[in-house]
Amino acid sequence: MNADVSTPPQAEALAARILMPRERPLLLVSSTTDGEFLFDIDALRDELDGIAEVVTITTGPATKHLEQLLPPKAQVFNGAARSYPVDFGADPDWHRSHLRFPNHADTGDLVDDAMAQTGRRTVQSAPAPRIRRVTGTVQGFFAHDTCAMVRLDDGTVVTATSALLPADIPLAAALIPGERVSGILEGRELQPEPLEADLAAFVDGAHTLALVVKVTDLRATVQLHPRVSVILRRRDVDLSEGPVSDVLQVGDVIRVRVRREPGHEIALSLADADPSAPLVPSLALVTGGAPWLGEGRPTETRPTETRTTDAAEQPPAPEASAPAATPTTADLATRADIAALAHEVAALRGDLLAVTNLVGRGGATASDSAELKRLRAENEQLRAKLADERAERAKVEANLSEATHDRREAGRALRDARRAAERAHVDPTEDGIRFEIERTWGNRTAPGERTRWPLREFTFGAAFIDSLAALDENQLSKAVRACVDAVTGRDREIPARELHRLRTGEGGDDSYVVRADGSKCWRSSIEQNTPGARRLHYWELPGGVIELSRVVHHDDTKP
User: What is the pLDDT of residue 90?
Assistant: First the structure.
């Protein structure tokens, strides 16, 4: 891969961009001395598209020149990477731009760094948040696509959730990155409002888009809206012979023609669709949102229906639990090839049947013996061609199956990387720990549980940050999760936390530790079954505020 920046003049231009005010964070990734990039550049650009700028630089003269132009300790080299905040030039503190090394961090860490620099939430004690209706632009998804980042028209970055959406409309289907959305803002949480499926715009003869959600050999199910499904039979797909699954696959977005008759349900046809006809936009799923389907636009979230076989053909198979993979342009072209081959095979079968019938007729005379010989030769040629076409079709189908498998594996790898990012390095500063507690709460608490487990106001004791210094990355990540359970009160329902009040001594009759202001001291387990297992000590102040006191070894019983 060629780097974006490889010469000193290019490094000068890059330094100016880093130090000037920007609308988005700038993530800079350096190569090794051999010219290789150890972080996944394509994944970074895909994850941060529209959220942060990703730039690559070659280690050598370019990185050395850049080091001279930037503030102290703000450089990158030899495979390392860092994300620069939008206002780095105004406050060029290198602590605000964490240097990440490939052997200690992964792509998910860099994504988290850049996302954190787009705007941080702060937990404060305040009156109930003001509720208002707002509009903004979707920046991207996080927390396994259960939350989205939205930049409001006033520049504020908030988190969109599916709190008001029904279960059959996932957030990743309702919101489109780069498109507009409206909703109800409560504090820093944007709640898009669902729209009913209004089919009035789809008049008879109109053309629109539909999502394929189920395919069998005889029919396909498509959706105009997650709550409006229509059956396409073989005649609607323009197939005289061969299975419908040769032409359509779950996840395809197809152009269809609408058929409406008085007293009948809406019907659709792929066979009658005109490729040049103007399209009626697909329905928006939320207020102020974009159409949920678009030609050439991947659909990130699929309904759970999958490719099946009709009950008359085979016993029912277990329902698939994973979402279907997103078809690529190459996949669609491959399926078009399969459809063309299916038509050719059907034509060849017809020719072969006609020739076989002609050859099989009795009463051949000497005058037509030459014609009979020619027809037999043609019969053999057609059989050979039919065999070749079948082999070619099997090869194309195998390639398509392999491509689908590769996409699913890539999707699993991406999910694993996101999960690993949740356990990755935590910045051991007061701002860093506060942000990690808030982020971990957002990732671990489903929108429907946030009322039951709210993130209460919390503070740090004088010795808390220093008590984290001896922890490794894994222990620090565990400590953050224990803090979230303490602040939400969830540790009272988790047996592994072994939560109990701290006493003044080791005896069961010793009094509990209570401060002069009435605060109670609690002790919670961070680790179990390991030498020197860590514990979290925290104070519960009158009024419910949590003060995180210290992370200590098992045998340390001081508050």
Answer: 86
Q: Note the Cα 403 to chain centre separation in Å.
A: 19
What pLDDT was estimated at residue 122? 34
The CA-atom distances, in angstroms, between 434 and each of 146, 444, 487 are 22, 16, 11
φ and ψ at residue 336, rounded to 5 degrees = -65, -40
The pTM is what? 0.38
Strand partners, 25: none
Q: What is the rounded distance in angstroms from the CA atom of residue 450 to the CA atom of residue 484?
A: 12
pLDDT at position 66 over 80: yes
pLDDT per position as a tens digit, 209-249: 999 999 988 889 999 999 899 999 888 887 556 688 878 88
Q: How far apart are CA 175 and CA 534, in angstroms?
A: 42
CB 252 within 8 A of CB 220: no
Nearest to 498 by CA among 476, 469, 529, 477: 529
Task: Return the SS3 of 261.
Answer: coil
Q: What is the DSSP string of 27-54?
A: EEEE--TTS---S-HHHHHHHTTTT-EE
Considering the chain, what is the average pLDDT of its residues? 80
Sign of CA dihedral 431, 436, 437, 441: positive
Within 13 A of 146's CA, how many CA atoms are on the CB side? 13
Written as six digits, the tokens of 408 are 């699913």
Token pair in block for residue 85: 């905040």
- Amino acid residing at 266: I
pLDDT on residue 112: 81
The beta strands (E) that lie in 245-302 are given as 253-259, 267-269
Task: Give residues with Cβ within 8 angstroms of 442, minimum separation 6.
Answer: 143, 147, 159
What letter would DSSP give residue 540?
E
Residue 185 exposure: Cα atoms within 13 Å on the Cβ side: 19
**Could you give the CA distance from residue 529 to residue 371 in angstroms, rounded to a whole number?**
89
Task: Give, in order, the Cα–Cα distances in Å from 73 to each of 56, 83, 99, 105.
Answer: 18, 13, 9, 19
Query: What's residue 338's pLDDT?
Result: 57
Q: Are 163 and 148 in contact (CB under 8 A)?
A: no
Pairing of strands 267-269, 131-142: unpaired
Q: Coil, strand, or helix at residue 403? A: helix
User: pLDDT exceeding 90 applies to what percent of the chain?
Assistant: 31
φ, ψ (nearest 5 deg) of residue 330: -65, -40
Answer yes or no: is pLDDT of 207 > 50: yes
Give the count of beta carbons closer than 10 Å to the beta carbon of residue 257. Answer: 19
Q: What is the pLDDT of residue 5?
A: 93
Helix then strand then coil, % of the chain, to nearest 5? 35, 20, 45
Beta-bridge partner residues of 138: 150
Q: Is 4 exposed, middle or buried (0-12, 13-18, 19+ CB in 10 A)?
A: middle
Cβ pair 13, 4 in contact under 8 A: no
**Angle CA(108)–CA(110)–CA(111) in degrees, nearest 5?**
65
Contacts of 338 (CB under 8 A, 6+ apart): 246, 247, 393, 396, 397, 400
Query: How many CA atoms lie less than 13 Å away from 81 in the CB half-sphere?
Result: 30
